[in-house]
């Protein structure tokens, strides 16, 4: 039997070690390198020279992780010197690559590029896999140095070269997605990262998950980002990747700060300081200090000289450490902190002004908005402040319009929170009702749903929706043993569909808006609510009277009463007649009376009432309040949306009705509704038929079971024959319907996001262009729903305005759970047609 070749065995172990490093499996890499070194010791000296240098280069990754960057660079310099003396051009190139990569891992991007430039000159001596590595690393580091076009070209070339190297192709595509993120194209970033994630590549994906978390954090999806970052933290800690672990912990802290969990943010940032302190990485410690300061200053709204001093020290420390971007951010935080203690920073300081100008040019919306917040802190000039506020609103609206996904468009409002909060506090303090209304309307316009260009559904996506419908139907009858697996599979499909929508590109659909004026309000009483810190404020407008600005209850009391009303209304809907039902109704009436006194002004005009709710008030069935019963009542996203969205049909509208399964009275209700409109059609209550009806009819009435998903509101659904119809699906429908009636329990519910962005069936339809939606905010008994809907359509078909028709049709207290959302809608009945 022939003797085994020690050089071949050493090379095999070395290749396995490289693969382990590429997959961030450092423990395995150490074992394979030790194995390679052992085999190499038995090989003839000259034969193993180059392989020995390669082993030392790969080992420098482990040295950097164990003993820090200087030790690793010293080892690489030794390899570089020996390679130059021996005329090994290829090893010189690899040594320069390794130095550059390790410098970049420590955040020294300028030094990293200095090391990589000689490697470019020497790269022709490298085989394909090493050339791919060079392009990968150069592209990635170039992106971190801000050379995004060059980085995109390098990474695209790397992906092309790595056709037979799936691990490297994964990294090239993933990093290209990260460059798109740096460019500010978040849908492209998510799309390219998803393409990488779909590859069958044997790589550890902890770092990739962390990168995707960063993108999601920039979009405002902080819960999703925090979940990914948390998973990455566990995996990176297990893998022993200290540098990457510190970065992931920092982003966990950023997510906590953005989500308002200040104590968690401070704790996580402190953990980063502990991780990096013993390694002497002062720059990383400064980043952690910045996250901690930002959480306290912006998340909790703290003030005090301590924060101002900390911010000033952070500015100096970042400059000394050669971290200009961190110094800029610290300068912005210092300006905000100084204002909080009544000692604003010097607005004319050229260094401060330069920092904020640079931040305004950032591809990151969050960074641009922080700069505007700081600029607002530095000026008291009304004209300058107005321009800055318009800039913030316009920048946010433009960023949202580039996203096809309603999910992303609502989430991105998170980053605008500190600016909106400061503006509304100022408006509340000013005491001018009309000025306060204009302030709230500015932000509601910036955060309004912008219909994007509709992209057709793809076959693969259609299959996923079909599978999801089947799983939801299976879950209805599944036993406890099967339900867990079905829910897990449904969750996987929902995640895949959600990411597909995130990757969609949109473009601005501009609508010319008429300036808001008292004349546009006509006879309406307008009740526009907003929060200044934790206090509810009301702008009260009545015809021919000055705008009033009232201070109402605190957030905790309002939220508690709203929750009691919702719970009481749902309990009453499910309670049979008798003493228990009477007790439930009595308690509900008491809560409604208290809310009526808390929320409504002493006097209300006789005309229509328009309510613009805020926060928890968006969940309240306003028509149940004693003084709003039997009133022509509309719930609107903004006063402007109510003014500009009204629809009047002079000819008869096209009407479609659909009766879903499981409701004993749905068929009778829909037949009655169809009989009230000339030419109305009863369509199949199937997902495809209802979707088609939304694109071809003017009025669509659906009587079906509704399910609101608080955890994932765009998967709120209507139960139809053949499976559920989900809110997400409607994003790819060119909706024609101007009025949609959802006679489905709780269909008006929505989950609130920062910026008062609500997500659910009703809000999704309004964001997609429907002008008015009728839906209940709580459970409604079937008989009450059928009776109310018949009376409502009878009046609507006779030409009565929609909100008035709904109010007049609502006879009992629970009927008033049905709410009119959006703008006014009316139709003149045909002369030859008289409703029965």
What does this structure look like?
By secondary structure, the protein is of the alpha/beta class. It contains 33 helices and 18 strands. The chain has a six-stranded mixed beta sheet with strand order 8-7-9-13-16-17, with helices on both faces. A five-stranded mixed beta sheet has the order 3-2-1-4-5. It starts with 5 loop residues before the first helix and ends in a 9-residue tail after the last strand. Mean pLDDT is 86; it is low at 831-836.
Provide the gyration radius in Å. 31 Å
| Beta-strand residue percentage | 5-15%
Span between N and C termini?
A: 100 Å
Briefly note the structural class of the backbone: alpha/beta
Low-confidence stretches: 831-836
* H/I helix tally: 33
Mean pLDDT across every amino acid position: 86
Across the major sheet, the strand order is: 8-7-9-13-16-17
The total count of strands amounts to 18
Helix content: 55-70%
| Sheet with most strands | 6 strands, mixed
Spatial shape: globular
As an assembly, this protein is single chain
Outline the secondary-structure elements:
Elements: H1 6-22, H2 26-41, H3 49-67, H4 69-85, H5 89-105, H6 109-122, H7 128-144, H8 148-161, H9 166-183, H10 186-197, H11 206-219, H12 222-239, H13 242-258, H14 262-277, H15 282-299, H16 305-320, H17 324-340, H18 350-360, H19 365-377, H20 382-401, H21 406-411, H22 417-430, H23 433-446, H24 459-477, H25 480-502, E1 525-532, E2 535-541, E3 548-554, H26 555-574, H27 579-599, E4 609-612, E5 633-635, H28 639-644, E6 647-649, E7 655-659, H29 666-674, E8 681-682, H30 687-696, E9 699-703, E10 706-707, E11 717-720, E12 723-726, E13 739-743, E14 751-753, E15 757-759, H31 761-767, E16 772-776, H32 782-797, H33 802-809, E17 818-822, E18 825-827
Parallel strand pairs: 1-4, 4-5, 6-18, 7-8, 7-9, 9-13, 13-16
Antiparallel strand pairs: 1-2, 2-3, 10-11, 11-12, 14-15, 16-17
Helix pairs in contact: 1-2, 1-3, 2-3, 3-4, 3-5, 4-5, 5-6, 5-7, 6-7, 7-8, 7-9, 8-9, 9-10, 9-11, 10-11, 11-12, 11-13, 12-13, 13-14, 13-15, 14-15, 15-16, 15-17, 16-17, 17-18, 17-19, 18-19, 19-20, 20-23, 22-23, 24-25, 26-27, 29-32, 32-33
């Amino acid at each position: 039997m022939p003797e085994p070749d020690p050089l071949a065995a050493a090379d095999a172990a070395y290749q396995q070690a490289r693969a382990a490093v590429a997959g961030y499996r450092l423990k395995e890499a150490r074992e394979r390198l030790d194995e390679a070194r052992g085999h190499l010791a038995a090989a003839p000296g000259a034969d193993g020279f180059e392989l020995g240098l390669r082993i030392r280069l790969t080992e420098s990754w482990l040295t950097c992780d164990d003993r820090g960057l200087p030790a690793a660079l010293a080892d690489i310099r030794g390899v570089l010197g020996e390679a130059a003396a021996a005329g090994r051009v290829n090893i010189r190139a690899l040594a320069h690559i390794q130095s550059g990569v390790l410098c970049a891992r420590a955040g020294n991007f300028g030094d990293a590029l200095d090391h990589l430039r000689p490697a470019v000159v020497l790269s022709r001596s490298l085989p394909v896999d090493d050339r791919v590595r060079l392009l990968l690393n150069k592209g990635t580091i170039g992106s971190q140095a801000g050379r995004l076009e060059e980085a995109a070209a390098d990474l695209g070339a790397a992906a092309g070269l790595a056709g037979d190297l799936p691990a490297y192709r994964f990294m090239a595509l993933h990093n290209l997605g990260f460059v798109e993120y740096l460019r500010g194209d978040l849908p492209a970033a998510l799309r390219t990262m998803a393409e990488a994630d779909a590859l069958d590549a044997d790589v550890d994906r902890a770092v990739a998950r962390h990168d995707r978390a960063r993108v999601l954090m920039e979009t405002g999806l902080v819960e999703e980002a925090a979940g990914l970052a948390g998973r990455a933290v566990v995996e990176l800690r297990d893998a022993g990747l200290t540098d990457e672990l510190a970065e992931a912990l920092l982003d966990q802290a950023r997510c906590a700060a953005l989500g308002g969990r200040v104590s968690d943010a401070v704790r996580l940032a402190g953990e980063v300081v502990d991780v990096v302190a013993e390694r002497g990485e002062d720059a990383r410690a400064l980043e952690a200090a910045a996250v901690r300061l930002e959480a306290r200053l912006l998340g909790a709204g703290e003030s005090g000289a301590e924060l101002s001093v900390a911010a000033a020290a952070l500015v100096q420390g970042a400059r000394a450490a050669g971290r200009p971007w961190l110094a800029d951010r610290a300068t912005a935080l210092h300006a905000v902190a100084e204002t909080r203690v009544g000692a604003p920073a010097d607005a004319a300081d050229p260094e401060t002004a330069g920092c904020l100008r640079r931040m305004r040019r950032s591809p990151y919306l969050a960074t641009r908005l922080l700069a505007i917040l700081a600029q607002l802190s530095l000026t008291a000039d009304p004209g300058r402040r107005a321009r800055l506020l318009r800039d913030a609103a316009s920048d946010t609206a433009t960023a949202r319009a580039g996203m096809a996904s309603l999910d992303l468009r609502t989430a991105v409002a998170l980053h605008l929170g500190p600016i909106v909060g400061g503006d509304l506090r100022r408006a509340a303090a000013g005491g001018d009702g009309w000025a306060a209304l204009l302030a709230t309307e500015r932000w509601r316009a910036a955060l309004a749903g912008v219909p994007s260009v509709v992209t057709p559904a793809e076959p693969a996506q259609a299959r996923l929706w079909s599978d999801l419908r089947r799983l939801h139907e299976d879950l209805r009858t599944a036993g406890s043993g099967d339900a867990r697996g079905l829910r897990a599979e449904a969750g996987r499909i929902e995640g895949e569909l959600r990411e597909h929508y995130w990757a969609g590109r949109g473009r601005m659909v501009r609508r010319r808006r008429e300036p808001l004026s008292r004349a546009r309000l006509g006879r309406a009483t307008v009740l526009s609510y907003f929060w200044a810190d934790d206090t509810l404020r009301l702008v009260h407008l009545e015809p021919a009277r000055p705008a009033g600005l009232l201070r109402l209850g605190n957030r905790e009391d309002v939220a508690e009463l709203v929750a009691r009303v919702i719970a009481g209304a749902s309990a009453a809907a499910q309670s049979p007649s008798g003493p228990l039902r009477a007790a439930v109704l009595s308690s509900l009436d008491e809560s409604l009376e208290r809310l009526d006194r808390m929320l409504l002004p002493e006097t209300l005009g006789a005309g229509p009432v328009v309510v613009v709710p805020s926060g928890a008030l968006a969940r309240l069935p306003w028509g149940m309040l004693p003084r709003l019963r039997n009133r022509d009542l509309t719930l609107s996203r903004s006063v402007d949306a109510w003014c500009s969205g009204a629809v009047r049909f002079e000819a008869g509208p096209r009407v479609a009705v659909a009766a879903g399964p499981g409701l004993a009275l749905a068929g009778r209700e829909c037949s009655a509704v169809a009989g009230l409109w000339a030419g109305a059609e009863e369509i199949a209550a199937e997902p495809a038929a209802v979707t088609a009806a939304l694109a071809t009819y003017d009025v669509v009435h659906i009587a079906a079971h509704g399910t609101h998903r608080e955890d994932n509101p765009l998967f709120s659904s209507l139960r139809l024959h053949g499976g559920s119809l989900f809110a997400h699906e409607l994003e790819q429908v060119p909706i024609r319907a101007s009025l949609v009636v959802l006679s489905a329990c709780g269909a008006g519910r929505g989950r609130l996001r920062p910026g008062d962005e609500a997500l659910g069936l009703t809000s999704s339809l309004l964001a997609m262009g429907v002008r008015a939606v009728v839906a209940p905010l709580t459970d409604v008994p079937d008989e009450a729903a059928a009776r109310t809907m018949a009376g409502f359509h009878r009046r609507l078909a006779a030409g009565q305005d929609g909100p008035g028709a709904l109010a007049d049709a609502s006879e009992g207290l629970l009927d008033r759970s049905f709410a009119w959302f959006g703008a006014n809608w009316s139709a003149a009945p045909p002369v030859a047609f008289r409703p029965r």
